[in-house]
Structures are given as structure tokens and as C-alpha cells.
Design brief:
Strands 1-2 form a two-stranded antiparallel ribbon. It has about 70 residues and is an alpha+beta fold. The chain has one helix at about 5-35; strands at about 55-60, 65-70.
Length: about 70
Amino acid sequence: MSPSNSNMRLAAFLLLVILIIFSLEVQGLQAAVRPLRLLGTCIQLCTGDWDCNPGEHCVSNGCGHECAPATSPG
């Protein structure tokens, strides 16, 4: 095995390791910005705006209801 072939293999291996680490970091960041859903979306987390924090409304998520930030009209 020539020295340049060995260097190329090492560089390819290091690139692979860097890409895997970067992928894990991106996955961690994506999980951090996604809302936590322990029981799925078909649960009733609220029945009306009174169950939510100030500035939030109780909205349908297509299956259940959950509190979401209020949006301004328009």
C-alpha cells in the first residue's frame, strides 16, 4: 500500500466520522425544536382557551386538542 493511498483512506475515514457526528448533532437540534409528544397527537390536552397559558389558544391538531401560541389576524 502506497503512502498516498493510506492517506486517502485516512482522509475518507475522518470525513465519514465528521459526517456522522454532524448528522447526530442535526438530529439532536431537530428533536429540540419539535414539540414533545409522549402520547401521540390524539389526546385532549385542553378543552378551551381557559386550559392554556396566557397568549395561547386551545386548537385542534386534527385528532385531539392542544394549546398553541395565539396568532395575530392577517
